[in-house]
Structure formats: structure tokens, C-alpha cells
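Example record used in the benchmark description.
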Amino acid sequence: MSNTRIAFIGAGNMAASLIGGLRAKGLQAQQIRASDPGAETRARISAEHGIDTFADNAEAIQGVDVIVLAVKPQAMKAVCESLRPSLQPHQLVVSIAAGITCASMNRWLGAQPIVRCMPNTPALLRKGVSGLYATAQVSAEQRDQAQELLSAVGIALWLEQEEQLDAVTAVSGSGPAYFFLLIEAMTAAGVKLGLSRDIAEQLAAQTALGAAQMTVTSDVDAAELRRRVTSPGGTTQAAIESFQAGGFEALVEKALGAAAHRSAEMAEQLGK
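Model output (C-alpha cells):
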């Protein structure tokens, strides 16, 4: 990425996070530019990162190597069709818009090399995880560029089939909300057990953070970590057995299945 020039179409939170991550990794401000219809948004991202900004998308992509589409899914068709006359065949298009398939983008953009990504909101803290899928037109060098781009805000994992992005959406794209829900529920239960809301919430949130850190740094899987902290006949076993008696695993499977189904459904609706 040392000589790669990147244009962001859309300068919202996720674009700002990626730009910040790239700048932290050593990319120069002159290598990055962004376009956005909002004057305040352009002024803010320019002041924060020292990059050039544009109101016109077509102007922003002139002379760049990578174009990052960071717009709302509902706006993708119009944005792609407006960019098409200005695109160069070598320019890599990276989409971080949920639910827009590569086939739809190829129909709107033409035969551009495309990498479709599914990041999640912890990318705002550079603790994200993204699933990536590349079309056949994407070169090895361009795959590396996309990998480095998304790795600036967390980890990036390649998928062999585009349809797997629906599962990525279900597990990690929507996943932060599941943990927020669990923290909410644990906080409420702690209050009922006699704790103040502030203490219960801190206990739940910090426990979630610690457990996640143990999982990602351990040389064993989550199931083994759970076994190691579940003493026979102890308090943890009592809680785990209560979860399982309530159908915890089946409920999680059903919930993620619903998210994946909705992801596929949205792709069909938005790709028309």
C-alpha cells in the first residue's frame, strides 16, 4: 500500500475509521481522498486527517488505484451508475455496503475488479473483523490491497464463496448487538440480585471484554476455555446448565439463521 492511492466515496463513520487506520499504518494524507455530499462531513474528515475532499464523486476517483464504496446500500445503484463513465479498467472497487452483491455492482459499474466486504462496528475502535470476497477479475496485488485496507481496522478473512457473506453478516456483522443484548440482560439480572446498575454494568461489560480477549489470545477454543472455568457442582455449572435447559444453543442457531436469511433477502431486494 506504500504507493497506493485510495478514494472513499462516502465519508461517514466507517470510512473515517478506515482512513484513520490507514494513516496510523503510515499512509500519507496525499494518498487518500474522500467525497461526500455533506459539506460539514467533508470539512470534518479533512480537518481530522488532512486529506483532500470532494463534493463530486467522479472527480474524487481520478487517478486512484482503489475506490472504496462507503455509502448506504439504498444509494449504491445511483452512486455506481454515476461513477461508471469515469472508471478506469485497472481500478479496484471495494464495497463495504451490506447486501449489495458483486453481480449487482458489475451490472451498475461494468466489468470492474470488485472486492465485497462485510465489516462490523468495532472497526470504529480498530477492533473489527471483516469477511472479504473477490471476483475473478481481482489480481493478487489487488487482493493484498484489500487485505491491508480492512486490516487497518481489525482482522480480514477471505471467503471462497460470496454467499458466505450472509453467514458473516449473521455472525460478526450483526454480532456486536448480540453481545450488547447479553450485557443488558446480565446487568438487569445483577440489579435484581442487589447490585447498583452502574456496578452491574461495569461487571458485565468488563467480563465480556476479558472473555473475548482470552478467546482471541488462547491456544485452545472457546469450548475448552468454558470447560476450564466450569468446576463440577460449582456456580458456573449451575448457570450453564440453566442456559442449556432453556435451549440456549438452539436459540442462537435460530437467531443467526434469521439474520443470514434476512441478509440474502436484502441482497435480492437491493440488487434490482
